[in-house]
Design a protein that fits this description.
The chain is an alpha/beta fold. The protein is about 50% helix and about 15% strand. The strands form three sheets. The chain has a five-stranded parallel β-sheet, with helices on both faces. The chain has a four-stranded mixed β-sheet with strand order 8-9-10-11, with helices on both faces. Strands 6-7 form a two-stranded antiparallel ribbon.
Length: about 450
């Protein structure tokens, strides 16, 4: 798959490189979940400049330095790293010295892995960086996919590299328009159902999109069939993404995420499901430390309201927990056919929920709104009400109230009109309301 989008990130990297090459060394931190395209972005940004690319694999520091020496010696003219160098601090100092004579980009990928190899390296890197950065021309990019560790290394005031980076880029999934562009390249006559499926199963994560496109999977059936093959990279992907983040106690976190993915999304429901487990602590860490879940409150609700629902922020993980974790026994029995049939049978319901997220994201990308959420009141009978989307326009005078349906034939105008009036009376009395039904036709 060719390189798509990332214009803003490329410009940010280029600006920092220009400062490094003209004035003095710069440090940029690049983070983002696995498969989000960090390495592709780095390589694209370095197409026309000298790049030293070092990948940190977990293992012996001396062996790592030995492999780095070959890369550096093959790339730079102003430095020679002996094969018997055993300390990465020595390697890093040689590279910074080379920055006095050469202008180059230094990329250290999976930078957080030094934490497991030799955590004292961060103090040494800080010392070397402080001594050389003002007299050298190195554009140093530290890239990492374990979010909690990267945040701790660079944003915890107690850590040596705190305050050293000049910019932080957190790479996000593709925007909705980019997904349309990719799908159109591989299937010019794609349908809205194809687009919704690609969004639902990948969440816009480039690697997953690439896997589908390279294997000719451009519709719902083909995508599901590909994901449930015996050698499918999707089957174990959630484990690869999260176990390193959570550590040995990943089981409790997995249980919470699986519950939320299956619709048990209030604190009381999660508490009942988890029994004696300290659910509040797990919820807090999933939200604040790992940024894997988000609180949903009715729009304009106060911070302390008890009317809270939780949702998984990552769309792929939402899908993975709903099917690959919930039906793990089918995977272990290698009963992939039944798993595929279950996903296909539930897809209309699941994709309807995802469609709401698609429109929220599309609204956010338009930059026409200052607040986007939903609204509900948990009462019984006729007083019960739930509005899918409420968006407040940037003029702070207009509110878009939307009902989301896969097909327009399922829309009930009278019932929706009742909801609009209720939400108007409750929270939107001072707004001009634009009431709409959004369907797959509007994607």
């Amino acid at each position: 798959m060719r390189f798509y989008d990332r214009k803003a990130e490329l410009m940010q990297l280029e600006r920092r490189r220009e400062i490094a090459f003209k004035d003095h060394s710069q440090m940029t931190v690049l983070t983002g979940r696995r498969r989000i395209g960090k390495t592709m972005l780095i390589r694209k940004s370095c197409e026309n400049c000298t790049m030293v690319y070092l990948f940190v694999s977990r293992g012996n520091e001396a062996m790592l330095c030995n492999s780095f020496a070959k890369v550096i010696n093959d790339t730079l003219k102003s430095v020679f790293v002996p094969d018997n160098t055993e300390s990465f601090a020595d390697v890093f100092e040689m590279l910074m010295r080379a920055g006095r004579m050469e202008k180059f980009t230094l990329v250290i990928d999976e930078f957080q892995e030094f934490f497991y190899i030799n955590p004292t390296l961060y103090s040494k890197i800080q010392d070397i960086w402080d001594r050389y950065k003002d007299t050298t021309h190195v554009f140093f990019v530290a890239s990492g996919s374990v979010y909690t560790l990267m945040t701790r290394i660079f944003q915890d005031a107690r850590e040596p590299l705190y305050g050293r980076c000049d910019s932080i880029i957190k790479l996000k999934p593709f925007a909705t328009d980019v997904l349309k562009e990719v799908l159109a390249d591989y299937k010019p006559d794609y349908t809205k159902e194809d687009l919704l499926a690609l969004y639902a199963f990948t969440g816009g994560v480039p690697k997953y999109v690439d896997l589908f496109m390279q294997n000719g999977c451009t519709d719902v059936e083909m995508m599901i069939d590909y994901m449930v093959q015996p050698d499918s990279p999707f089957l174990d992907e959630g484990n690869a993404l999260l176990i390193q983040e959570f550590g040995r106690k990943y089981g409790n976190y997995f249980a919470v995420l699986a519950d939320i993915a299956c619709g048990r999304n209030t604190l009381s429901e999660l508490g009942k499901s988890m029994g004696e487990t300290n659910i509040a602590g797990h919820i807090r860490r999933l939200e604040e430390d790992y940024e894997l879940i988000a609180k949903k409150r009715p729009i304009f609700a106060k911070e302390g309201t008890q009317t809270v629902r939780f949702e998984i922020s990552d769309l792929f993980l939402r899908f993975w927990f709903r099917y690959f974790v919930k039906y793990r026994s089918l995977v272990e029995l290698a009963n992939y056919k039944s798993l595929g049939e279950l996903i296909k049978m539930d897809y209309p319901t699941y994709s309807g929920l995802v469609l709401e997220m698609y429109f929220r994201q599309k609204m956010a990308e338009s930059e026409e709104y200052i607040n986007i959420g939903s609204w509900w009141q948990a009462k019984k009978g006729k007083d019960a009400c739930e509005v899918d989307i409420v968006g407040i326009k940037t003029d702070d005078k207009t509110a878009v109230v939307a009902e989301v349906k896969r097909q327009r034939k399922n829309f009930k105008p009278d019932e929706f009109a009742r909801k609009v009036e209720l939400v108007r009376n409750k929270v939107l009395a001072h707004y001009v309301i634009d009431a709409v039904c959004l369907t797959m036709e509007d994607m």
